[in-house]
């Protein structure tokens, strides 16, 4: 669980985050949504410790990040997995080598232990048949699964994803969404996903935080998001004709 209290972030005169209070729960897919410039990326980078809050606190399972020693922060970071928007895979490494890279870099596991863990993860993300292939030899959806496998190979308590469906077709996006949700629930991970993909909101929005102009403008889940009267959420969600029709159907009780 990650708790933020009265979180502010300023860059000189630019006040980006404005007093946000929220709880990201373990075992659930916690989505951050909002228009461009709403503060989503700054919030995600603040949670990752890239940005230091101007005011307020970020707590991981009750421990305030700003109060931790350097050693405690390193230990916490070892429990964090990250899926980058561009995947950030190593072109010269195979699928198995990419997934196992964090274990070689940050653990003292033996080669046999690493191989066992990598095989376990590849099975979970359905990549066992591609273990010896290079990133250039697999599809964009498979590359995303490699990135997810690498992010969870250390058995993290916290998983952060920045636009995980960026550049993927709708069908592949659903596969990635379901994979993230399954992993989150199976391993009781606190998963935080920064997204603009409304299909993700529909599929896996266990908890949704909607930001507008750096403020917490609405919270709810994937069912409530289609029923809310919050004008800003309605404008964001139903910006396409498809979702306008969904809203009309929901309101008619279908």
What does this structure look like?
By secondary structure, the chain is of the alpha/beta class. The protein has nine helices and ten strands. Strands 6-7-8-3-9-10 form a six-stranded mixed β-sheet. A four-stranded antiparallel β-sheet has the order 2-1-4-5, with helices on one face. The radius of gyration is 19 Å and the shape is globular. It starts with a strand and ends with a helix. The model has no long low-confidence stretch (mean pLDDT 91).
How much helicity do the residues have? 25-40%
Please state the structural category.
alpha/beta
Q: Indicate the low-confidence ranges by residue numbers.
A: none
Strand segment count: 10
Q: Mean of residue pLDDT?
A: 91
Report the principal-axis shape: globular
Write the layout of secondary structure elements.
Elements: E1 2-11, E2 14-24, E3 29-33, H1 40-47, E4 55-60, E5 63-64, H2 70-77, E6 80-83, H3 95-106, H4 111-124, H5 140-152, E7 158-162, H6 170-187, E8 190-194, H7 198-204, E9 207-212, E10 215-220, H8 231-237, H9 241-251
